[in-house]
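In this supplementary section we document a worked example of the pipeline. Step one takes a protein sequence of length 127 as its only input; no multiple sequence alignment statistics are reported here. Step two produces a three-dimensional model, which step three serialises into structure tokens for compact storage. The input and output of this example are shown verbatim.
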Amino acid sequence: EDLTTACLLNAGVLLVRVSEWSLALWSEVWASPSSRKFHLRHFHEQSALIKQLTRRGERLEHHRPFHSFAGGPQVKQSAHVCVLPRYAFNTNQLNGECEFIFHAAGRWSSKGLTKKLALRVALERAG
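The serialised model returned by step three reads:
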């Protein structure tokens, strides 16, 4: 799930099973006319992905509230998609709550860090 309630999904790190369904989904995310309007926007892949999942009937928006930090379920599932709560799959926070993948995305220079140093801090805090 995304870090804010403004968006359902965070597309920073994804696990995708190779199948006809996922190949068609990603083709539509990148090439469908209904996705192109997002291509010039910030975080366009997240918006295009949500649009295509909705068009395919995955119905993620029916989980209300959606985000676990806002009282929604920890795990949101549909026929082909499973959305995990923040930190369960990936995070870019240096607070030691990373359970699987540290994703060094973001503007680390504004915090006086490089991505390499941020990764080192994340590894030290994870033990």
